[in-house]
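Hi team, as promised in this morning's meeting, here are the two structures we talked about. I've kept the exact order from the run log so nobody has to guess. The first one is mostly here for context; it's the second one we should focus on when we meet again. Sequence first, then the predicted structure tokens.
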Amino acid sequence: MFGFLVSFALADTLGLQRDLYYGIYAASVAVFFVAWRGVVYGLADGLLLSVFPILVVFAAFAGTKLRERRAGKIAIGLAALVASLAMTASYHIGYSDFRSEKVGRALSGDVIWSTPTLLTLNPIGAPIAHAGLHVTAVLNSYETDLFFPPHE
């Protein structure tokens, strides 16, 4: 999947000059090699913690008058965000180190990584945003007291 995305975006879509493509491709592979845990874990978390609850809430109101009005869409979006926050909280408190004030960090992050999917209802937004946060965490994990669970 990673290989397809890189070649499609850089060669097919952007049509980069060959040497520029090789340089960016090599750098992308190096970053992916270092941060693959953040990418894979982030994509999975984004789907489970954001996309699923958000799309379920919006699907529950499909075809209703509430969904036809702007205020109704905002209300549904807030309900979807609450569902995502509930999913995020319940998931994270399954890990002992998140049964503290640290769960607040995950909840704050949820608002950030859920925003693309909330605004567009496109399921790819939250996993990409979540993967970005996880990659950042992987690269900076030694500079913080919060590490990816489960711990060894």
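And here is the second protein, the one for discussion:
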Amino acid sequence: MQNWRTYLFAALAGLAVAMFALACPAGNWLGSKFGPAILNAAKGKIADPAAFVTGRMVEGSLLLGLAIGLGAVYAGARKLAAHRPNGWMALVLTAFAAVNIWFIAAMQTAALWIALSTGGAASNLAQFHFKEELLREHQAERQILLLGSSQTQAQIDENILNQELDTNVWTTELHFPGSRSLDLLLVLRRLEGAPGDDLICYLSEYYFYPGLYTTTAPYFANLEDIPLLKRIGFGREIFTQPYGMGFLGDVLPLFACREAVSQRLLGSAVTSLEQAKHDTALETNLVRRAEEWAQPFKLNEDAKRQKNAFLAFVEEAARQNRRLILLEGQVNPILSELFPPELRPDMKQFLRQVAAEHPHVTLIPEAEMPRHESGDYKDLTHIVEERQAEFSRWLAGRLRRLEGAASVASR
């Protein structure tokens, strides 16, 4: 049995070395042979099929090598544990530590998130990190990141921007569903060190006025965020479940991947039961649904804290040397007409003040953007694909003008 384990370790080590050595030639061959298929499957997320394949083979070889090393450590711990009365406790701790160490490394690779993907129903976290890890493989001189909620994704087609803009500019969509101002801040703090010269956010009342609910804290909140959260008025929230789950995931990488791992092992149908129940319960009449959705929108202390979070987001972008392009967007008029009348003017005044006080912020006001009527929406917040294409082409033109103005100003 011992010889069998030795042979297995040797074979896996040989496979890891072979994958690493052949990554570049195999990537070039596979990229040239299956490039169109890879690009089509990626839906605009990758620019170079050969670099994509090579990168995944290198990542796979390194993760396999790390697994072999950690397996050898576990095997040694198992030998020692066999001679101790309570050795099983040390063995369990060794295995637990080994798995988390492997996940620390694996979470920095696109290979892991591909492995944890379940196609179109992949977890939001897996989709986000997969796109994030690919940022470093793009060779464009400038990179644009689309941040925010699903409204940003529905409003702007990154593929159209990449087709319309200069070849030296690459756009990546990094939305996270349900994001509000605090969520923008938490996501950007996790993107520190990643490429991205410009950040584009399509903003609406959803970022400031519907309360303090957060979708990103269970995945992006870290222990290092606690002083900042307290400073901007979210001190009580750090003791609630969403933030606690994020802090635990910061300490235990395996827990941070819990949703994606569960979905991979159990299937998306099982892990999406709550979402399916929620979707079934949604009111199909948009007017009645709007009446329900509009209720939490208020100009109150919670809105003030969301604004504080947005200001912290703006400051974080400056610290990371990124330019912010803010689009003064909207929601379906069926919904916005039910908002308290003071919300829209308050948001506009706030965004204008932000742009006036921060040189790295460019605000594109509502009056300069295409207006969408209720018939342009497929629900209360997301426009139909035809309008998305029109808006994306308009935005590409506006970005070209912004770059032209910046070039003239720098002379």
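Starting points for discussion:
DSSP finds 20 helices and five strands in the chain.
The chain has two domains: 2-106, 141-211+296-409.
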